[in-house]
Amino acid sequence: MLIGFGIMLATFVAMEGVAWGMHKYVLHGFMWFLHKSHHTRHNHAFELNDLFFAYYGTLAMLFFIFGSEPLDYRFWIGAGITLYGVAYFLIHDVFIHRRLKLFGKTSNVYLKALNMAHKVHHKTPGKYGSEAFGMLWVAPKYFKSAYDIVQKQQNEKGGTVHYKRT
Ligand SMILES: [Zn+2]
Ligand SMILES: [Zn+2]
């Protein structure tokens, strides 16, 4: 069981690498025709790009099917892929793109850095020249800017309180 959880966590971490590589070399490569829908402004509820959820979902399901009865390591790989899919959906689709209005603004430096990095990714509408292809892992420079912004916001808040007191 403990080994199972270890495999699940390792898969989760590995999936960030897989997602990064897929995004950089495949989605912004020969599968741009699907991913393009995610880099174009629109007001539809779904995008062709959402097909990738079906792809990872199917992949996880296959691991579950072949890894149960008897339960083996493949089951835990399936669990890791599923966990990563849920985290990706919550961060990328709900928190960053606000497809569901669940979360408000955050003053969490990590979440702010993720948001900034991904907005920079979206600055480039085309297939080439984009950066920040990862999701949960962000380059340190974004942490630095996010940290500065949060500090500034907190100073401003402090300033208002001080102003009210006098
Ligand atoms: Zn992209
Ligand atoms: Zn996005």
Kindly list the characteristics that best describe this protein.
166 residues, 6 helices, mainly alpha, single chain, binds zinc ion, globular, 0% strand, BETA-OHASE-like
Overall description:
- This protein has 166 residues and is mostly helical.
- Helix 1 crosses helix 4 (73-96), helix 3 (51-67) runs antiparallel to helix 4 (73-96) and helix 4 crosses helix 5 (109-123).
- The chain has one domain (2-165).
- It contains six helices and no strands.
- It starts with a helix and ends with a helix.
- It has helices at residues 2-30, 32-35, 51-67, 73-96, 109-123, 140-165.
- Helices cover 69% and strands 0% of the residues.
- Bound molecules: zinc ion (2 copies).
Quick recap of the structure?
This protein is mostly helical. The chain has six helices and no strands.
How many DSSP E strands? 0
Uncertain stretches of 5 or more adjacent residues: none
How many structural units, i.e. domains?
1
Helix/strand-derived class? mainly alpha
The number of distinct helices, counting runs of at least 4 residues, comes to 6
Q: Span from first to last CA?
A: 60 Å
Gyration radius from CA atoms, angstroms? 19 Å
Helix residue percentage: 55-70%
Note the quaternary state here. single chain
Overall pLDDT level: 91
Strand % is under 5%
Order of helices and strands: HHHHHH
Shape: globular
Largest sheet: none
Give the ligands present: zinc ion
Write the layout of secondary structure elements.
Elements lengths: L1 H29 L1 H4 L15 H17 L5 H24 L12 H15 L16 H26 L1
Helix pairs in contact: 1-4, 3-4, 4-5, 5-6
The structure holds zinc ion (2 copies).
Family: Belongs to the sterol desaturase family.
Keywords: Carotenoid biosynthesis, Membrane, Oxidoreductase, Transmembrane, Transmembrane helix
Protein name: Sterol desaturase family protein
